[in-house]
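Long-time lurker, first post. I've been practising inverse folding by hand and with some scripts of my own, and I keep getting stuck on stretches where the structure tokens seem ambiguous. Below is the full token string for one chain I'm working on. Before anyone asks, I'm not after the true native sequence, just a reasonable design that respects the backbone. If someone could post their per-position residues I'd love to compare against what I wrote down in my notebook.
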């Protein structure tokens, strides 16, 4: 095994279709017009020395190490900033160049510490490499530069230019003495991340990198994406894990297990110890970029809280006792058989995980259908994005996004509705911001003033701060303007859609009650802003729509998705690069868990369970007769449990007690069951009500695939042995075997082969093909052997695109004198979902608790100051947390996150849900906020029960 090395070409690739031919050191090479001499040299196999250049950022030309000679031109131009011209004859190594480069390196080394043997970057330092490349053997200027690490000079006097290391960031250090002022970190922060958190302060030998206005990294605007650390050619910015462990010696490419962007990383190892995660430049979702979670927040994999042995208890009030895997499997099988014998075949079910691989999810739904004999299977994907599946399926014929992430580079107008990409999908957010800085226009539809509305060098053309719950009214008003002003694309509609359905829809949206003026009182949005946004989207060129949970988690989530599809079809913004309808999926494998048949009414590939032909495919392969009746969704399972007819559940990798709405109802349902089996990394909140705990494995400990928000199937590769002894797919298989099924998979690749054999959109997918291609986007089959980056290119999957009327129906959740405010929920950059992983990493430095955002006007009316404890109450329940007074939210709206179980924000949310899919209405809850003295009585009772539930025999005795 060895490290996966990537070539750094020095400057980005040119996208020109025209080519030029140059001669470099006697070799002819043809490259796209605009290619730098440095990159052309590298493509010819000639490495020009460099320090300030890297192909992740634009050329800068400051280090003067990459000079070349060009015949017929005076001087020695920098190869990074000099484009190739036809017929150029270039020399990269002459006596003159050698002397210049040595002189440049002497200046660098004269002002740099020479502690190479003890430096963390030893063996991975470009300055060290370049000193060797130019043949530097001595420094005429000495080695006592002012920037050295010494706090005092030889006379004992304080060195005013010395700066201590900045250790404030939990993941990397900043050593100013080793900075060579190449500006690579500053440019990466600007061009790749788009945060503009770094600058160069001072001049000459006094110049250094500075976060913000000479702040520490942790206190600055730095978002810890790692782009600066990756760009740094010395040990100035170094991962603390590298300092502690040493340089890695082998690596594997794998896929991040956080959000739905699906970034590719090189997991760099020493033996079975992970040293660092480095974003892979060939990763087609992230193109070599990362965020704080994927880059640094992997410490949970080895956290002391991980449960590594199976555990059983008779009652949830009992302490846990550790057992062998065989005893655990036998116990679960026995209990499930007993429950079905006593209460009937429909009395048990299961929940698949959107954090597990496609293969593992497929096996769980297969176990439920072929082993349990029912279709009582559901997933958190329904809790977040099932309206996407329903709405896009109705309009287009497929329940997934239409574009790849690269498509945004060709967008001219972008609508972001109900999504906060810079926090929830930060790598895509960075790519979007880069396009906006290049001139694309932005429309944001969101109750909050999110970061992307106004950030460095970016300002949304329109921000429509609608009242929570009025998405449908706003989208229909946008359509009203487009139709009544004749801004629709008639040629596209006549060719690709049903014209009569369009006419019916157009008549509907053109009605006066759907005008921006008519809905103003309802939505709170300025009619002129709606009209301007509609005109910009319809006439501004390639228009793309990106949306998130702020669209789907409503009682009209499916209706809003259909309204978005209507808007895209009416303007012809479907079927090519730069346009489309793009759901930003929440968890890493939300798309995959949907694809794999995790819904009670659908088999893999979104085919209804009642379809005889589809069932026959699986019945023949599995050797069982399948139940053709749809099963229960999660809320139905909980209802049935309270009623006494549902008694057992297998939950793989989900924490429904913290993530699902109406926490008290979830707790009541779980408490009424006789065998709750939880498979996870930690004793999560749901495990408080579990009778069996099966320890899970992390993404670092398994093979498989994830499918991201752009339908990209990416490989997950095992880099260490499972600390619990079994990968998650093996746990499910052994459970199936204990229940009498003759499964005999020896590797997840065999599961993917079965998926391909049964699911048309995956027909061309196998591990060998993924190794060859890197990744593919489904559908991947005979019609699309290389996958489908863009959907609906020559026509919609369903045939003709379907326009659907989208009548606004107000939610049953109403504000009033008792509950006058509207609560909406979301995420922050540093934490992830229920926080089980990120709370066990250094990310708590940025978000140690959930806070309630409240507008200054609402806070003043209630006597609330920033940081005060407040009581947040709804018709469903109440909790307490600390206030954050901010103008990000509008008056009448409050906002919080749900990352910390101490808050249990979902005790506030109601059981209202989407009319078509049962997706919970997390985003609209009527609440009241009042001063509080601290945690509520319910929180104290909850925490006491949780503490009682997590006792483990043995550990309990050791503690005593």
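-- Answer (accepted) --
I ran through it position by position. Result:
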């Amino acid at each position: 095994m060895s490290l996966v090395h990537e070539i750094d070409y020095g400057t980005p690739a040119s996208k020109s279709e025209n080519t030029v031919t140059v001669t470099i050191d006697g070799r002819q090479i043809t490259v796209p017009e605009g290619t730098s001499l440095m990159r052309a040299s590298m493509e010819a196999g000639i490495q020009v020395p460099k320090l300030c250049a890297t192909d992740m950022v634009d050329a800068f030309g400051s280090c003067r190490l990459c000079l070349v000679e060009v015949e017929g031109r005076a001087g020695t131009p920098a190869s990074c900033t000099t484009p190739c011209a036809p017929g150029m004859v270039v020399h990269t190594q002459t006596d003159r160049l050698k002397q210049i480069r040595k002189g440049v390196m002497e200046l660098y080394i004269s002002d740099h510490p020479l502690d190479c043997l003890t430096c963390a970057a030893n063996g991975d330092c470009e300055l060290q490499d370049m000193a060797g490349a130019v043949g530097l053997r001595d420094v005429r200027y000495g080695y006592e530069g002012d920037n050295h690490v010494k706090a005092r000079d030889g006379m004992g006097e304080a060195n005013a230019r010395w700066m201590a290391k900045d250790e404030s960031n939990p993941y990397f250090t900043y050593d100013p003495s080793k900075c060579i002022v190449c500006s690579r970190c500053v440019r990466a922060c600007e061009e790749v991340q788009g945060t503009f958190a770094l600058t160069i302060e001072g001049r000459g030998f006094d110049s250094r990198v500075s976060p913000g206005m000479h702040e520490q990294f942790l206190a600055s605007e730095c978002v810890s994406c790692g782009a600066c650390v990756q760009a740094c050619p010395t040990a100035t910015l170094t991962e603390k894990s590298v300092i502690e462990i040493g340089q890695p010696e082998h690596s594997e490419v794998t896929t991040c297990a956080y959000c739905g962007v699906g970034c590719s990383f090189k997991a760099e190892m020493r033996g079975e110890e992970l040293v660092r995660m480095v974003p892979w430049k060939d990763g087609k979702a992230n193109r070599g970029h990362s965020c704080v979670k994927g880059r640094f927040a992997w410490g949970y994999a080895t956290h002391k809280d991980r449960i590594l042995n199976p555990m059983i208890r008779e009652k949830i009030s009992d302490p846990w006792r550790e057992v062998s895997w065989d005893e655990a499997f036998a116990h679960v099988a026995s209990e499930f058989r007993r429950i079905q014998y006593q209460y009937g075949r429909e009395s048990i079910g299961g929940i698949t995980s959107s954090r597990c691989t496609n293969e593992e999810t497929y096996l769980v739904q297969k176990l439920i259908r072929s082993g349990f004999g029912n279709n009582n299977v559901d997933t958190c994907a329904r809790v977040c994005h099932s309206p996407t599946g329903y709405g896009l399926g109705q309009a287009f014929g497929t329940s997934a996004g239409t574009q790849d992430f690269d498509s945004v580079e060709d967008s001219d107008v972008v609508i972001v509705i109900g999504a906060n990409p810079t926090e929830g999908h930060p790598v895509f957010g960075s790519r979007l911001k880069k396009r906006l800085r290049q001139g694309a226009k932005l429309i944001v539809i969101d109750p909050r003033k999110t970061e992307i509305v106004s950030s460095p060098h970016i300002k949304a053309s329109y921000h429509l701060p609608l009242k929570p719950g009025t998405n449908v009214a706003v989208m229909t008003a946008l359509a009203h303007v487009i139709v009544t002003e004749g801004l629709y694309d008639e040629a596209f509609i006549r060719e690709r859609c049903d014209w009569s359905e369009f006419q019916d829809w157009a008549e509907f949206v053109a009605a006066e009650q759907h005008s921006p003026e008519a809905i103003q009182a309802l939505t709170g949005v300025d009619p002129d802003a709606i009209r301007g946004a509609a005109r910009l989207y319809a006439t501004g060129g390639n228009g793309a729509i990106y949306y998130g949970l702020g669209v789907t988690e409503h009682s009209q989530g499916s209706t809003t998705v259909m309204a978005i599809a209507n808007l895209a079809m009416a303007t012809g913004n479907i079927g090519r690069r730069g346009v489309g309808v793009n759901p930003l999926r929440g968890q890493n494998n939300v798309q995959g868990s949907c694809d794999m048949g995790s819904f009670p009414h659908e088999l893999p590939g979104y085919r209804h369970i009642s379809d005889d032909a589809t069932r026959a495919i699986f019945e023949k392969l599995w050797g069982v007769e399948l139940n053709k009746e749809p099963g229960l969704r999660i809320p139905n399972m909980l209802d049935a449990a309270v009623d006494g007819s549902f008694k057992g559940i297998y939950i793989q990798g989900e924490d429904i007690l913290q993530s699902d709405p109406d926490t008290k109802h979830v707790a009541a349902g779980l408490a009424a069951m006789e065998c709750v089996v939880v498979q996870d990394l930690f004793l999560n909140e749901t495990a408080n009500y579990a009778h069996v705990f099966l320890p899970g494995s992390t993404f670092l400990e398994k093979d498989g695939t994830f499918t991201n928000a752009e339908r990209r199937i990416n490989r997950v590769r095992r880099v260490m042995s499972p600390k619990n002894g079994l990968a998650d797919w093996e746990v499910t298989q052994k459970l199936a075997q204990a229940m009498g099924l003759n499964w005999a998979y020896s590797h997840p690749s065999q599961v993917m082969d079965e998926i391909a054999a049964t699911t048309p959109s995956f027909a061309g997918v196998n591990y060998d093909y993924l190794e060859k291609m890197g990744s593919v986007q489904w559908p991947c089959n005979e019609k699309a052997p290389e996958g489908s980056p863009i959907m609906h290119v020559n026509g919609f999957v369903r045939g003709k695109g379907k326009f659907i009327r989208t009548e606004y129906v107000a939610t049953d959740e109403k504000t009033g004198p008792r509950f006058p405010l509207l609560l909406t929920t979301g995420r922050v950059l540093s934490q992830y979902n229920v926080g089980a992983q990120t709370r066990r990493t250094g990310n708590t430095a940025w978000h140690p608790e959930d806070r309630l955002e409240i507008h200054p006007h609402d806070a003043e009316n209630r006597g609330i100051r920033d940081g005060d404890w407040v009581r947040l109450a709804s018709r469903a329940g109440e909790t307490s947390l600390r206030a954050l007074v901010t103008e990000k939210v509008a008056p009448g709206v409050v906002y919080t996150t749900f990352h910390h179980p101490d808050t249990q924000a979902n005790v506030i949310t109601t059981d209202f849900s989407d009319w078509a899919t049962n997706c919970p209405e997390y985003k609209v809850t009527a609440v009241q906020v009042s001063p509080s003295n601290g945690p509520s009585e319910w929180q104290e009772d909850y925490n006491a029960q949780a503490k009682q539930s997590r006792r483990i025999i043995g550990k309990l005795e050791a503690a005593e």
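A couple of notes from the structure itself: The chain has 30 helices and 36 strands. The two ends are 46 Å apart (CA to CA). Happy to go over any region you disagree with.
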